[in-house]
């Protein structure tokens, strides 16, 4: 997560500053959508990290492989969360706290109920297919 946070620190403003017109360097016009660019690698890699984690556990691969998958998942989570929150702050301005408060309940619901359902899901499907199911949901 630390590496993902550092990546966002250096890339979050890069794309917005680079997109300003060269003939108006003092312009305050910012295309907020460009703040979402650093989230793209995390969105692509998170399903892969889930698949790697589940199947390395299922196949009883060396402990380092699931540890790498967990690190990759943490990287992906931080590189998707930080740009999303920055985007919300940019587009809602003075009302950004309300916008973030409106987005977080869905995140909290999944954070509450997925751990409750996870033991049953893993017992029924095994680590490989349970994480594959989560990866397929993310892909959709």
Name a few traits of the molecule.
140 residues, mainly alpha, 4 helices
The count of DSSP E runs of length 2 or more, i.e. the number of strands, is 0
Q: Provide a count of the helices.
A: 4
Question: Are there runs of 5+ residues with pLDDT below 50, and where?
Answer: none
- Largest beta sheet, briefly? none
Instruction: Report the radius of gyration as a whole number of Å.
Output: 18 Å
Mean pLDDT: 88
Distance between the termini: 24 Å
H and E order: HHHH
Shape: elongated
Q: Helicity, in percent?
A: over 70%
User: Beta fraction of the residues?
Assistant: under 5%
Structural class: mainly alpha
Please give a structural write-up:
With 140 residues, this protein is mostly helical. 79% of the residues lie in helices and 0% in strands. The chain is built from four helices and no strands. It has helices spanning 2-18, 39-58, 64-92, 96-139. Helix 1 runs parallel beside helix 3, helix 2 (39-58) runs antiparallel to helix 3 and helix 3 runs antiparallel to helix 4. The relative contact order is 0.15.
């Amino acid at each position: 997560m630390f590496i993902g946070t550092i990546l966002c620190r250096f890339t979050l403003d890069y794309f917005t500053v680079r997109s300003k017109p060269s003939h108006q360097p003092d312009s305050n016009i910012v295309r907020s959508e460009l703040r979402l660019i650093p989230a793209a690698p995390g969105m692509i890699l998170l399903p892969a990290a889930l698949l790697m984690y589940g199947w390395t556990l299922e196949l009883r691969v060396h402990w380092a492989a699931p540890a790498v998958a967990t690190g990759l998942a943490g990287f992906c989570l931080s590189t998707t969360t930080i740009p999303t929150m920055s985007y919300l702050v940019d587009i809602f301005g003075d009302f950004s706290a309300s916008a973030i408060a409106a987005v977080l309940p869905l995140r909290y619901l999944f954070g509450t109920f997925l751990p409750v359902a996870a033991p049953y899901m893993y017992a029924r499907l095994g680590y490989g297919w349970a994480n594959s199911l989560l990866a397929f949901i993310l892909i959709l």
